[in-house]
Every structure is written in C-alpha cells, then in structure tokens.
Amino acid sequence: MIPEPRTIAAPKAMTFDRLLEKIRYEGAYPTRERAEEALNAVLGGLGAQITGEERVAFAAALPREAARVFTGEAPGIDPAPAARFVDDLAVRTGGTAAT
Questions:
Q1: Distance CA 49, CA 34 (A)
Q2: Which of 96, 94, 71, 77 is nearest to 86 (CA)?
Q3: How far from 73 is each of 10, 47, 78, 96, CA to CA, in Å?
Q4: What's the pTM?
Q5: Is residue 93 within 8 Å of 83, Cβ to Cβ?
Q6: What stretches of the chain adopt beta strand conformation (E)?
Q7: Distance between CA atoms of 82 and 69, rounded to whole angstroms?
Q8: Residue 77 and residue 49: Cα distance in Å, rounded?
Q9: Which site from 4, 27, 37, 56 is most exposed, i.e. has the minimal number of CB atoms within 10 Å?
Q10: CA-CA distance, 56 to 71, in Å (whole number)?
Q11: Percentage of residues in the chain having pLDDT higher than 70
Q12: Helix (H) or strand (E) holding 32
C-alpha cells in the first residue's frame, strides 16, 4: 500500500494590523503609530534598494498596505551598500545605526 502524500499547509498570511503589533512589540515602540512610522521608513528604504524578481516576491509576501509603501518607492539604479542603507534609515527615523 502506497501512503498518501502529505500536504504542507501554506502559512497564514499576516494582516497589516498583526504586522504592526508584532513590530510594536518586538521593537518596543510605545504606540502603534510609532511602529507604523518605523515600518514605513524601512519599507520605503527597501523599496529604493530591491529590484527585479526579488522586488516582486517581497511585495507579494507583504500585507497589501505594506506592499503599497514598499512599491511606492522607485528602485534606484545603484543600490546603496548595506552600511549606508542602515545609516540613512537611522537618520530618517531619528534613531541610530544600532536601533
């Protein structure tokens, strides 16, 4: 007798609200609004960095509201090195490279 093939359930898509709550908790942000500001800054920065198939796959994995922020930034011709990306993000969010 041949065993039945097992199927792997796809992970449940994360909602935008759940994503914000996770960011708020993990980032120790005092409010949902502050967590959303941080998310928008990160997604905007990544949107300017990621191109091609990676960009499409990343946007598809995000909740719709987050994908709009990510794809709202046109990718640059020459993405910044990681260290500069982190430094730029720290400036935009009022944080430090460590945060």
A1: 23
A2: 96
A3: 29, 5, 14, 22
A4: 0.76
A5: no
A6: none
A7: 20
A8: 9
A9: 4
A10: 9
A11: 87
A12: helix 32-47
| Separation CA 22–CA 33 (nearest Å) | 13
Q: pLDDT tens across 15-28, in order?
A: 999 999 999 998 88
Report the C-alpha gap between 39 and 1 in whole angstroms.
52
pLDDT of res. 86: 87
Q: Is 88 exposed, middle or buried (0-12, 13-18, 19+ CB in 10 A)?
A: middle
| Count, residues in the chain | 99
Residue 42, by phi and psi: left (phi above 0), alpha (psi -120 to 50) or beta? alpha
